[in-house]
Amino acid sequence: MRFRGALFLAVVIASTSxxxxxxxQKVIDLTLDMLDRWFTGHDKEKxxxxxVEPQLADADAKIKKFEDCKRNFEAIGGNSGKSGLATRxxxxxxxxxSDSDGFRxxxxxxxxxxxxxxxxxxxxxxxxxRNLKDKLxxxxxxxxxxxxxAGLDLLKSKKNQLASAFGVTLNVAQAGGRGMRGPGVWTTxxxxxxxxxxFTMQYLSGATMFEKDYKPGEWTKxxxxxxxxxxxxxxxxxxxxxxxxxxEWWRMKTIMTDKGAGTADTIVMxxxxxxxxxxxYVQTLVRMxxxxxxxxxxxxxxxxQQWAMWNMAGTMPKPTKESIDGATVGxxxxxxxxxxxxxxxxxxxxxxxxxDWWLDDTSVGGWVKFSFLDNEKKPIYTMELxxxxxxxxxxxxxTIK
Length: 401
Fold this sequence. Notes:
Layout: E1 8-9, H1 21-25, H2 32-51, H3 53-75, H4 84-95, H5 101-122, H6 126-140, H7 149-156, H8 159-165, H9 170-173, H10 188-204, E2 219-226, E3 232-242, E4 248-258, E5 263-275, E6 282-291, E7 299-301, E8 309-311, H11 321-327, E9 328-336, E10 339-350, E11 353-359, E12 367-374, E13 379-389
Antiparallel strand pairs: 1-8, 2-3, 2-13, 3-4, 4-5, 5-6, 6-7, 6-8, 9-10, 10-11, 11-12, 12-13
């Protein structure tokens, strides 16, 4: 898997990403009327989605048929010795199209219908309906930055209705506002909500934008902290190996420490990702084993299809060489618990602050520290390398075929 860019969890991550300072200032002064109208619109969206389920199923079938055809074409050497253009022509002749973009655009048009109907039913502009929906989902997953204090007070009284609207249990809704902490009971619902939040914190911040490929067995360990959270989160990820079918097994281990309570929870996940045949950065999560607090042993986790596709290019595209050169502050000595490094310091502006990276090609992954700073150069969010090495093996009984 190429952890060169931010890791994007399709569908869910967009609604749980960390707010930048500029976004954080644009809070919604939520009123009861506004929330009631949104519930009306959301009910309409759900009913309309049911109406288009046959169309979505047909669109998904067309995408799958094309991708299976293309995969089989490549497997038998159909593109051997041909140029890129010749390959595309050959694939189109065999599979009816040269790529799946047209099918995916058609699918998105189908999805646009229910949201337009929802906005109309609730008396919103489409952008406002979507924005409120994103912030409500974020609130449910623990992000309170999208609403004023009056709005937050209102939402606390509506958690039952909100949980029902998004199809999660009340246990998940009650976990909102816990930041990086876990709940008292790790339900299946919350496990997946938490996984999406964890990847948001680790990847959508932009921290891994300059990351280099890992070799099989290589691992890194990171400490993550936020200025307004007393919790400390430690994340380890390891490239366990590649299968014969190009699928890649990765381990993600997280230790969440609640300083106030003096407790720590450890979560271990080992996941199999299969690369997309049309885009080297797109991987599909096809299997996961996990061990959560309270589990005596590892368990196989059901991977929801709607959360399966991951885009390794992320939401922050790779900068041009000239852009990186312009953003390079210099080479500095950086000391972390993992050692002292001679690292290139790169700084880009980001609304109400800056994003700072310290890059060292000699280290596993190629970077050693990342900070999101406000205008006063105070860290809002920081990740730093605290350990690295090689020889990582499965801890949950995974066999690499």
